[in-house]
Design goal:
Helix content is 41%, strand content 16%. It is built from 19 helices and 22 strands.
């Protein structure tokens, strides 16, 4: 949207008003220059114009380092944000900062509104808004990212040191370090934004009891992937960073940074966008709540984000992706390609809340194949290759109708076979791909069903109990989320069981010609510390 230039109408002539007749006297028309000269105000006007120009330079160039964007007049706070003062006043300084650096929002169409302690603020429609209407614009000079960092060169040097000298190439870890340094720097350009951010939540801040309530280790594993690795980098390199950059890292002890470091990492996970492969924080846009959009035609969740490049790629403008009625909340969308585990870890909600199956959901089945006697173990060991996995894991995807890979069935068939059957299998197939008979496939599937049923029976609570807990409105939020997560996983497993019992789908993985290159010799076997066997393929 282009801002109309102030004073664009030329003042070439002035019509004088006759107070007695109530009409304009065009006979006394004089030029604007004559009028101003006669009034002796040309000097005053010149001073005012010069002051406006000077203020514009200070207002634009100093904060942003660029004069690429117009400064839009900041409306009163009540036109920008609506709600109890004790809740919304903390955003006033943030809004001042946005407008001082080229931000624009259509205050006739939308307003930020306090929605409650559980939800924070949301963007509400003040009138009926049609599809594809631009409602706000954010210049990229306000984007926070490593490549857009122009106010703290020493911090950038520290990140470059991590990347080039210490060979840290994980972008989330590097971004976490930089955001932590910005948080600790009171003079950082992004301080008004950082101070406006709420404390991130989610499983990273859960108690051990709440983590245990999730019942499935995948939640703990995902949490570990996102935070344990970056924290290990902090702990391993803090002394070197302290030596190289003492002003930024005044202490050489990791514990002195852990709280701010965790805050930075979780803030990026919860709020960051992707722009050309970079982790990017986009002030104001990350205040907009999001939802999951189910496309009825495609029968899946799809991304329907409203932000697009504008101003020659120098800004993001947000366009409505749906028509809105007055009073409705304007929403962005979550990534439709994510799964339930990703949603709960990054955004703090579970797909069970949506009531719709997520096609990208899956669960990982860890299988301990049968051990057999010593002679069988020796025979199987002779088929093993070095580097076998500790466990055999099978990922079963809802969108694929829980298809069973043929190689998984082959491995199960080998480990279920008696000594004579195994020798017969080897004799029958030689060094060629192992081809299972229909009966052998059914036997392997039956064993898989039994293994899953045993897994189900080992759950601390069954699905019926979880349903009751899920509907308990008195359950604290984090515990409710943990129950919602485990309930969703259990529903997926129940659906997989139904599929395997009624109409299992068996598929070859990879290209057809490559999938045939499977023989007994490709099975990888390792013995665990307790003497039992684990197999991988």
């Amino acid at each position: 949207m282009q801002r109309r230039a102030v004073g664009s109408k030329p003042a070439t002539a002035v019509d004088f008003f006759d107070a007695e007749s109530g009409a304009y006297d065009k006979s006394q028309k004089r030029t604007g220059a004559d009028f101003l000269a006669n009034k002796g105000v040309m000097t005053v006007v010149g001073i005012v114009v010069a002051a406006i120009v000077l203020l514009s330079i200070v207002y634009v160039i100093l904060p942003t380092g660029s004069a690429s964007f117009s400064i839009y007049p900041k409306p009163p706070y009540e036109k920008l944000i609506d709600g109890p003062q004790d809740k919304v006043s903390r955003l006033h300084h943030f809004l001042d900062w946005l407008y001082a650096n080229g931000f624009w929002v259509d205050t006739n169409a939308v307003v930020l509104r306090w929605l409650g302690d559980g939800r924070g603020v949301g963007l509400m429609a003040l009138e009926d808004i049609p599809l594809e209407r631009s409602v706000f614009k954010i210049p990229k000079t306000l984007f926070w990212s490593i490549i857009n960092h122009h106010t703290q060169p020493d911090a950038v040097k520290a990140v470059q040191f991590l990347q080039k000298q210490l060979n840290i190439d994980d972008k989330l870890t590097l971004s976490t370090f930089l955001l932590m340094l910005d948080k600790r720097n009171a003079t950082s350009f992004w301080q008004p934004y950082i101070q406006s951010l709420p404390h991130p939540g989610g499983p990273f801040y859960w108690t051990e009891e709440e983590i245990e309530m999730a019942q499935f280790g995948s939640l703990r594993d995902k949490r570990s992937i996102y935070m344990d690795y970056p924290l290990s980098i902090l702990e391993h390199h803090i002394k070197v960073l302290h030596q190289q950059f003492p002003a930024l890292f005044p202490s050489g002890t990791a514990d002195d940074y852990r709280t701010d470091f965790s805050w930075a990492g979780m803030t990026l996970l919860h709020r960051a966008f992707s722009d050309n492969g970079e982790w990017v924080l986009v002030p104001y846009l990350d205040l907009i709540n999001a939802h999951l959009y189910w496309d009825k035609n495609e029968e899946r969740y799809v991304d329907k984000n409203g932000y697009h490049n504008s101003d020659g790629g120098k800004a993001w403008s947000f366009y409505t992706q749906f028509p809105y009625k007055k009073g409705q909340e304007i929403l962005d969308t979550y990534q439709g390609s994510s799964n339930n585990l990703q949603y709960i870890v990054q955004y703090g909600f579970s797909m069970a809340d949506s009531g719709i199956d997520n096609l990208n959901d899956y669960f990982t089945l860890r299988v301990d194949l049968p051990e057999g006697d010593a002679e069988m173990a020796a025979l199987r060991d002779s088929l093993a290759m070095a580097g076998g996995s500790k466990h055999f894991q099978l990922e079963l995807f809802f969108k694929d109708h829980f298809q069973l890979p043929m190689n998984f069935l082959r491995a199960v068939a080998v480990f279920l076979a008696s000594e004579d059957e195994l020798i017969a299998l080897r004799s029958r197939n030689g060094d060629q791909a192992l081809v299972l008979t229909e009966d052998e496939q059914k036997t392997a599937i039956k064993w898989i069903i039994g293994s899953i049923e045993a897994h189900v029976n080992s759950w601390p609570t069954q699905l019926e109990q979880d349903n009751r807990l899920y509907n308990d409105r008195m359950l604290p939020y984090n515990k409710h989320l943990a129950v919602s997560f485990r309930r969703t996983v259990k529903m997926l497993i129940q659906k997989a069981l139904y599929r395997f019992r009624t109409e299992p789908i068996i598929v070859e993985q990879g290209k057809p010609e490559a999938s045939l290159d499977w023989s007994l010799a490709t099975i990888k076997i390792e013995r665990r510390g307790d003497g039992s066997l684990a197999v991988g393929a």
